[in-house]
Amino acid sequence: MIRGVLSCRQTILDLRATSNGMGVSYCDIVLEPRVVPVDPRPRGPFQGWRYLAAHESPPDLDLKTSAGSELPIELSSQLRAIGLL
Question: Could you tell me the residue range of the domain that residue 13 belongs to?
């Protein structure tokens, strides 16, 4: 989520239990380095991709062939929001 817009996804590779030097436990989230842009769409808070139904998940965005890819992302998002892209 970036400014209330679902705009990319990244695969979680691992969850690792760890602690800091003061004995406080926490969880390291190991992510795949590749960030996959998706068709941007406004979205309220949610618990992650696994809770989205397949029809709610935005398709991956191929930036090389997508209509509007030469436009600034903010303009492209606004045009998508009103149905012009």
Answer: 5-47+58-81
